[in-house]
Structures are given as structure tokens and as C-alpha cells.
Amino acid sequence: MNSPNLHPDRRESAPGGKPPASSGVLGWLSVLPPAALTIAFLFYLPAISAGEVLRVAYDWVPSLDIRLSFLLDGLSLTFALLISGIGAFIALYSSVYLAGHTHFGRFVFYLLFFMVAMLGLVLADNLITLFVFWELTTVASYLLIGFDHAGAKARRSALQALLLTGAGGLALLAGLILLGFAAGSFELSEILTQGDAIRAHTLYLPILILILLGAFTKSAQVPFHFWLPNAMAAPTPVSAYLHSATMVKAGIYLLARMHPALSGTEVWIWTLTIFGAVTAVTASVIALRQTDLKLSLAYTTVMALGTLTMFLGAEATVAVAAALTFLVVHSFYKASLFMVIGIIDYRTGTREAEKLGGLAKAMPITAAAAAAAALSMAGFPPFLGFIGKELKYEGALAIASEPLFVASAAVLANALMVAVAGIVALRPFYGRRLETPKAPREAPLRMWIGPVTLAALGLTFGLMPGLIADSLVQPAVTAILGRPEEVKLALWHGINVPLMLSLLTFALGVTFYFFHLRLRGMLSWVEARLPTTGDRSWDAILDGLKSLAAVQTRLLQGGVLRRYLFVTFASMALVLAATFVVTDALRLSFDWSQPLLKHWAVVVLIGAGALMTAVVTSRLAAICALGVVGVGVAMLFVMFGAPDVAITQLLVETLVVVLVAVVMLRLPSLQQEAGPRFRRLDAVLALGVGGVVSAILLSVVSGPMDRRITGYFEDTSVPEAFGRNIVNVILVDFRALDTFGEVAVVVVAALGAYALIRGTKRSRPQPEERS
Amino acid sequence: MNSLILGVATRLLVALMLVFSVYMLLRGHNEPGGGFIGGLLAGVGFVLYTIAQGPTAARKALRVDPGTIAMTGLGIALLAGVLAALDGDPFFTGQWLFLGASEGDKGLPISTVLLFDIGVYLVVVGSVLTLVLALEEEV
Question: Which residues form the domain of B82?
Fold first, then answer.
């Protein structure tokens, strides 16, 4: 698979071994919002643990049932705490990591913007609100991944993430709207109670596919997984944040949130299980293959996402509890390991696995944090990771449909995880001391406090699982399953099958670790021989799209005005005529006694003008003849009692004649351009368009007119809008918004034409020699 | 264009047309007229001036760049909608004020609808002149 070789982040701030410039007040200020939010969310913990569900709603677009409503239950609180808590550590960490960076202020803004979007997403109770925040996270992650915008790699990765998750977002929008209609409400709290009705609905399958597309692209499931490792182009704190607690978990959150409404069907179970299992195993194999520590971790994130998806496919309480516990475990160890790797990179100048070793002496605190996080990741007791892993095995065995498949996928992925944990977090710190570009020393407090705290939390919760079991895991599992559940977490379950599987995992994992160099060689060999990878296919798709655009542009935009006009009018005539035939709407009854002599006179005038326009050889004469046509039409308006329209027509006609006359002075004379063949074609086209339009008008007037709207305007114009000129009252009052749109178009058109005229003037080298 | 007759006549005509355009604008709510027609009339007036005196003189007589006029008009039209929203009504609902109204006499009506029409007037004048002046200067 793909293995982008990433350069360590550029940090303009820390040249050589010099202590970095301080990030100043802003660095500290940026910690405040996430820290305050964490504390605020902690205050809700007792209420949520007691099984309460809090809602708050504001009207947004009431006519469309769109409300700015938020919901706080076990699931959203778990996510909210992870997002704001880890956000606080990341902000603190960044204030050193990116200290003195020219765009540090911008970075802080992006980071907080992202955090707010993510919080909005997990707290939203309205489908549309949820979608809006979903898209905001996409935009924010685009900005964060492309933060180092001078680098082509960062730009490409950012765009890839944006396009892929954006496309998924569109699918999600469609899915959510369908879901809203199927459930008869856009409020999640109502939808989630109607699971049976939704599953029985005819639209269930489209809804499910569309929502899964959104979740799978966001949460990097195979085959959409390749954007996530590429997103490592972002500065390390961003990777720690986006890939531990947040962005990529948005898809998982969605699956968990929709669980009561959509889960339980065959399609749900099989899709999630298979995609999740394939993702988990593929990603952990690729993770072993990487030499860049950060990339290796990125692939383990994909593995974790796959595992979570796989377990959310299940209905069994213990499987869902496993998913949720693993989610928390993963957030703790992944965020701290990313930050550790950032520290290594920051202090040694490299993060290539093969160049690092024996750093523990120089950076003892970091080494301790890394060890604790890695042990949790590998699932050794007494860390929370162990509980998570035991639960996973228990959950896998409890999955009724295919326990063997899920369990073996879980064992394989976990064994590989053990190996990767060793490579990422143990090898750099122990063993032979290797020379690094920079002499390593311990990181400042603001950098190690995050990893140390998170790793310590992994240990604390492992020793005392009761701390989170009742307060968070149980309410969250209740929210995911939509029914009250009892969840118990414990380190020791007795000697049972999960424990045996754990021992098997350790044995396999340690074996993988010792042979990982040879395995890596084999994997590279295989990778070099793969026909294609996700990343390369992506490029192929984008290139194909560009060539397609180029081809169709060349085809449609030939640059010949005559052809444009011909195509436009010909398609208009054909489409209208076809509509006539299909709908059988042609009615050609006409009362010949109706027109008076004066009407006939004007008709003759118009006809003569049109004929003259077509046959004269002088442009000026043609324009004047065209003016005659326009004036004739204006006279018709006067005769049929539409003075406003008549005046407008007359004035516009005057202006058009002036404008065209000015333009004509620069054009060659008539004969040079159009040969007789073209003129015959033009005549056919003109007659065709004229004939179709006349037929339409005749058909329209032959039927009875619906006068309800006219009547409404006549009745309300004076009492409600205080105006007797109905045309103008419609323009400026009843339909003011339409008029506003029209005048905006007028301005834009004028400015566009102005730019065109001026642009051609500048690009012309010299006044033409002819003329 | 060097035509003495056109030059002299234009001075009188343009002044008349501009006054008439404002008249058309103001009476538009009850009689034929309004912002579109008024704006077109004023536009035609300035086009006449441009033909007689040349685009440079027309720009000087206009004092303000036509693009600015159009954008100002758009802003004024938007303001008319925003004022209604500020009042708590749906966007672009007409807001009316009858100055000195008494029994049997509705007084002088002032409204956001008129403001909107003035915006339309300015947009049309500005857009037409942006185009015509650019084309005239081009030739």
C-alpha cells in the first residue's frame, strides 16, 4: 500500500538547539477555552451518570423543522470530554511545539475552530445541525492539514482529505434528509425511538448506504483509508488531535449515534463487520511496514477505526461496551504517543525508526509516558488497554453471526498492534544509543504534561475501572443501544476464553516484534508488486476527471460566437418542440376576428422590420430595422394596457441600438463573415425558434387563464402595499426579493462585461492596421 | 462627435431627462414608472450626453464612477430589506411611515419600498453607464 515518505514538520521556530521563542500570552490563552469546557462538561457527569438526558433547542429554520438543538447523553458526553480534554493538552503542547511560528495565531484559531465544530457535531440533536458541524470539521481539518501551506505535499494531502470527506459529506446529507423524511422528524431524540419503523421503511437501504458512505470516508475505512496517513503532513499536534480523539472518530460517533435507528439488520451487521475487519487487519499490516514512526501510528489509527466499526456492527451489549471502552483507551494512548513522537522529532530532529535508539537516558519522563501508553496500546495488564482488549474478545465471541471471523480478525490486529507498540514506543528509548541529528534532551513541562497525564489516566482507569464504568461507559452504551444496559469493567475475569486469546495475542505480538525487520522487508517486496494502491488510484481518478473536463470544454467551448448562438437556440427550439410532442400540449385555436386593424398594422410593421434586418447588407440599417421590431412590440404592449412594460421596452430598445451601434463600428462588414450556406441554416433556425415560440404562446392563450394570483394582487395592492400601479408594487414589494436578485445580476453582468471590454483592450498589442 | 446642434440640444435635453427620470421614479408606485424605468431614462440621458460630448466629459459630468453608483444602489436596496428584518418582519416587508397624516389625508408616505426603488434606480443607471462608457472609450 501507499507509504508517503514524510519529512519531519518544518519548525521555523527552533533552529539548531536554541531554546524556542515563547509563544507568549496567546499560547496560554489558547488553553483556556478547552480547559474551561472540560470542567464545564465534568459538572454534567453526575447527572448523565444517573441516566439523565439533557436537551436544549433554539429555532433556526422552523419552517423546515431545522432547529439548533443539542443533546447531552452518555455518548455525547464521552466524546465531548475527550475532545475538550485532549484539546486542552494539545493547545498547551502546541504553544511550545509551534512557538514563534509566524502563523501561530492562525494555528490557534484553526485548532479552536476545529474543536468547536467537533463539539457541535457530537452534541447536535438535529440532523441538519449535525450535518453543518460535520462539514465544519471537514473545513477545519482541511485548514489544519494544509497548515504548512508552502509545501506541495501538505496542500495535496489537505485537498485529498477535503475532497474525500467532502464527497462523503454530500452522501451523508442526502442520507440524513431521507432519514428525516422516513422518520417524520429531524430531531435525533425522536428518530432514535423509531428504529423499527425506519428499518421497515422502503428507503432504509438507500439511507443506510448514504450514511455509511459519510461515516466510512470520514473514519478512513478501506478503501477510503489512504487520506488519513497522508494527512500526517500536518504538524504533529494536529495529528495527535485529529487522529486520536476527534475528526476521524466523527464517523464512529455517527455509527454509534445511529445505532438505535439503523442497526440490527443483516446489511448493517455484515457491512460493518466486514469493512471493519478488513480495515483493521489491512491497516495493522501496513503499520508494521512503515519506518516513519508517525506514519506507523497513523495506520494503527486506521486499525482502531476498523475495530470500532466492526464492533459497532454488533447488537450484543458486551460488543458495544468493548467498542466504547476501546474508543476511550485508544484516545488516551494514541494522543499521548503522537505527542511523544512529536517530542522525539522536536528534540532529536528525526522520527525514522531505524535511526532512533537509547533515548530513555536523555528523556526519562517522555520515555516513561511512552512506555505506559505503549503498554496500554499493546493491552498489557493492569492498563485500561487490557480491559479494552479482554472486552473486545468477549464481545467478538458474543457476536452471534460470525464469532470466529471477528475474533480472529481481532486477535490478528491486536497482535500486530503489540508489535507496532514495541516499534514505536520502546525501540527508540531502549537498546543501543544511536546518533541523531540533534543531541536529545528532556522536553519542557508543557510538552510532556499531556502524554504523561493521558498515559497515567490509562493506568488509573485500568486499576480502578469502576471510575469510568458507571459514570461514562454505561450511559454511553445505553445511548448507543437505545435501551438501559448494565456494564461492568474489571481487570480480572477469571480464566476464560478471552484470557487465553490475550495470551495468544501476546505470544504472536512478541514474535512479530522480534521478526519485524524481516517482515517489513517482505511487506515492502509485496507492496512494490501491488498493481495499484488507493493513493495511486486517487491520482488516476483526479487526472481522469481533469482530462474529461478538458475534452468536454474543447467540445462545447469552441470559442466561435456563431456556433454558441446556434447551439443555444437550436437546443431551445428542439427541447421545446419535444416537450410539445411528449405532453401533447399543442392547441392552435385562434379567433381571427379578435385583432383589429391597428393590431394588424403593428404586426405588419414588426414583420417588415424583421425581414429587413435579415436581408440588408449594412449593419447600421440592420440595427435600425431591429429597433423597429422592438418599437412595434412596445406598441403592442401599449395597446394591451401594459404601459410600464411598454416604456421599459422602448427604453431598452433605444439603449440596445446605441450599444450595438457602438460595437458594430469595430466589426468587419457583413458579407465577409457568413456565406450563403450559413445564411440558409440561420434562416431555418430563425423560423424554427419563431415557430415553436409562437405555437407555445398560442397554446397558452387558447386555454382558460388562472386568475387567482392576478386577483390576489388586484385585491391587496392598495390596502396592503399602498400602491395603485400593480406592476411596480409587485416589483418593489410583493416580489422585492426577486427584484433584488435581478438587480444584483444586472450589476454583476455589467461588471463582468466591463472586465471583458477592458481586458481585451489591454491584451491587444496595437491598434489594428486594417480599417 | 462634433455637432453644434446636438451639443446645444443635449444640454437642455439631458437636464430635462434627468428631472423626468426622478419624476418617473417617484410616481412609480401609483402610475406607470418606477425604479427600472427611471433608471433607464437617466441612463439614456447620460448616453446622449456621451454621444454628444464624449466619454471623458460624461465621466466628468457624472462625478462618480458608474460602478460605484451601481454598487451603492445594490447596497441601498439591501438596506431596505434589512430595515424590515430589523423591525422583526420578514426580509423585504414594506415599512411605511405617513408623515403628517390626519383624518382623511394620508400625509406624505415614506417607505422602505421607495428606498428599494431608489436602489433599483441607481443600479440601473450605474450598470448601463458602466457598459456604455467602457464601450465608448474602447472605440
Answer: 4-138
